[in-house]
Structure formats: C-alpha cells, structure tokens
Design brief:
Uridine Diphospho-n-acetylenolpyruvylglucosamine Reductase, domain 3, Uridine Diphospho-n-acetylenolpyruvylglucosamine Reductase, domain 1, single chain, 9 helices, Uridine Diphospho-n-acetylenolpyruvylglucosamine Reductase, domain 2, 27% helix, alpha+beta, binds flavin-adenine dinucleotide, four-stranded mixed sheet, 20 strands
Length: 344
C-alpha cells in the first residue's frame, strides 16, 4: 500500500477544488489476479490504523465536492484490469473497480458486447458507477450489473452481491446508503449478444433523426451520445464540475398539477413510484439561476442542473450557490432539491 500524507486533492476531484487530505492510501495491484498485490495491500490496510480517523473510498472525484481539508484517510483502489466471458446467452466483462466507466464502454464496443453504449463518456470509474447507479440516455448501470465484489471495511470480510442485493434506485444503491462500509473492488457486467439500440431518450432519438441515422450501429450510438453529452456539459479540462449537481425531485400529483397549472411550459413529468419526477434543471432555470454566478461558483449556461467552477472556487462557494438555488426553488415552487453530488 502506498501512503501519502497531507496530499493535495486538486487533481483528485473534477470540480478542481484545492483541498488536502490528511492521508491518501493507495491500494495497488491488479484487482482480478488473486492472490494479488491488491489483496496484500488490503491486508496491510487492515493492519493500519485507518479506522481511528474518518475515512472514505474515493474514485475519480467526479461526484464529490470538498468543502474543507479532509481530516482522515481517503482510500483509492489502484490498477484496473478486465476479462471477458460468454455463456452462450450473454457476454460478460469482469472489471477492476478503478477502470474508468467510459473505458469499459469503449471495450464493450470494441468487443461488440451490447447494452452499455448509452453510458458513453460518463466520468468516473466503474466501482463508483455502481455506488451511484449512474445513468444516462435511458440506461443505468443496474441494467448491466451481474455481481459486485466488495470488502466490508468494518471487518475485512469479502462479499459478492447479486444485482438484486445491491438495492439499486435512482442514483443510489446499498453502497451509497451505507457510506464508509463497503469498498467495491470488482464488478461483473452482463451484455447482450445481439444489438438492440436503446432510443428511449427523446433527445437522443431526435439527434439521430436530425442526422438521418435510421438504424444506428453501436459505434454510432457511442459517437453521437459522446458528442451530444459534451455539447451540453462543461468539459472537465476547461471548467470543473460534478455533472448534475441535484437529483430530479419526485413530487406528489397535487404538487405536479399545481406547478403545471402555474407554468404550462413545464416539461412532461414522468411517473416515478408513487409520484412524478420533475426536471430539476427546468426548475432552476425557471427560478432565474441559469448562467448566474455567486462568488466563483456558477450555473452552467447550457444546462442549469450543472454547477461549475468559474476559476479557483472553493467548495464552500459551491455549497453557498447550491443553498441559494435550493431556497429559491423551495420558495417559488414548494419543491425541495436534493444534491446528487456528495458534499464532504
Ligand atoms: C461532467 C460530468 C458529467 C457527469 N454525467 C453524469 C451522468 O450523465 N450520469 C450520472 O449518473 N453521473 C454523472 N456524473 C457524475 C459522476 O460521473 C458519477 O457519479 C460517477 O460514478 C462518479 O465516479 P467517481 O469515480 O468520480 O466517484 P467519486 O466521485 O470519487 O465517488 C463517488 C462516491 O462513490 C464512492 N466510491 C468511489 N469508489 C468506490 C469504491 N471502489 N468502493 C466503494 N465506494 C466507492 C465514494 O466514496 C463516493 O461516495 C457526471 C460528472 C461530471 C463531472
């Protein structure tokens, strides 16, 4: 295990917040090839005193906002390796938790393993994708998860979770609901053997139609989605962000009808469980925040759901902006916005 004291987090979070961690613990080695350097490093982790202070597993930091220095240990899983197999009906990729989600999509396209292409260009790694149940363009990672291997950080036990046991929901999972408990080190994903493009997301279907693509190939889906995504979002190399800062709120029918009556231009609300899912981006835009800044934090002009770093902003400035937006949306629409990003 590599140990770094007083480590800068600036390159370890996509918001580009300049904070430090008291300690960064880096678990090296291939997570697939057992007994491995990775498991040796896990043993070393448990022999250390990491639980005496706060600790947290970190991926690529693309959904975390550090509001201050982290006074404990951040644990990072190292090398990413993978292997594929096939049971005649489905194809499978087993990947180490630190492999980037987009790299897994790229592999699936190269191998013609189908079903993950709609998650093209989602930042972060595959371990965190499971924690967050990432979703984009009509697909969530839960649609592909076969099993998840995790280490219980309370006692070092290893568990293999089925997809059902992961308790996936909208941007949540068992692992998100039990922060600090699990370290995901390996994920097995299940793919279709035949290609059926998922065109359920309207903006994607419209874009393909606009380009005159009637029967898209898997690679065309990946290319179009990647372009579409970056046409609306800040590129991490230019402006820091955590992607969508808030979850789309789910409200009861009365609230939904009340807002629709007051604002007939409200986008179609989709049924979600007992309620209706509203567009948080539209609410923020309607509340007048699109393109605005507060301190050095801003609301992305092309997508109001994204808060971004206009330059050298602190985590506290991001949180101040988020709170101001929450207050206005609550006052104007009676709707509580909940952050999707993890505020530390
Ligand atoms: C520009 C941009 C666009 C985005 N677009 C989308 C999108 O379309 N859809 C979407 O769903 N998300 C999106 N996101 C959010 C982000 O990509 C996801 O939440 C991603 O899964 C975070 O991955 P990460 O590796 O950066 O995790 P981190 O931000 O480092 O961590 C996220 C959480 O996972 C935990 N964690 C990380 N690794 C592990 C592990 N191995 N074991 C246990 N816990 C772990 C952390 O403790 C933390 O709670 C976007 C972000 C950005 C910056």
């Amino acid at each position: 295990m590599e140990i770094y004291d007083n480590h800068s987090l600036k390159g370890l979070n996509t918001f580009g917040i300049d904070a430090r961690a008291r300690r960064l613990l880096f678990l090296r080695g291939s997570t697939l090839d057992e007994p491995s350097r990775f498991m040796n490093d896990v043993d070393e982790l448990f022999k250390s005193d990491f639980r005496k202070a706060p600790y947290m597993v970190i991926g690529e930091g693309s959904n975390i906002v550090f509001t201050k220095d982290y006074e404990g240990s951040l644990i990072k899983v190292g090398e990413a390796v993978f292997y594929g197999d096939d049971d005649g009906r489905y194809k499978y990729l087993t990947v180490g938790a630190s492999m980037l989600t987009d790299e897994v999509v790229r592999l699936s396209v190269d191998y013609r393993y189908y079903g993950m292409e709609n998650l093209s260009a989602v930042p972060g790694n595959i371990g965190a994708a499971v924690v967050q149940n990432v979703g984009a363009y009509g697909v969530e990672i839960k649609d592909l998860v076969e099993t998840v291997d995790a280490i219980d950080l309370l006692n070092g036990d290893r568990h293999a979770f089925t997809c059902e046991e992961c308790l996936f929901g909208y941007r949540t999972s068992l692992f998100k609901q039990q922060p600090g408990r699990w370290l995901i080190w390996r994920v097995k994903l299940r793919f279709n053997s035949d290609f059926r493009p998922n065109l359920s997301y309207k903006a994607l279907a419209d874009e393909l139609q606009r380009r005159g693509i009637v029967r898209p190939s898997q690679r065309q889906m990946r290319d179009v989605i990647t372009e579409l995504r970056w046409s609306k979002l800040p590129r991490p190399e230019e402006y820091g962000s955590a992607g969508s800062f808030f979850k789309n709120p789910v409200v009861d029918e009365d609230t939904c009808l009340r807002i629709k009556a007051a604002c007939p231009d409200m986008p179609q609300a989709h049924k979600a469980g007992d309620g209706y899912k509203l567009s948080a981006g539209w609410l923020i835009d309607k509340a007048g925040w699109k393109g605005k800044t507060l301190g050095r934090a801003g609301v992305w002009p092309k997508q109001a759901l994204v808060l971004y770093n206009t330059g050298s902003c602190t985590g506290a400035e991001v949180v101040a902006l988020a709170q101001a937006i929450q207050k206005d949306v609550q006052q104007q629409f009676g709707v509580a916005l909940e952050p999707e990003a993890i505020i530390v």
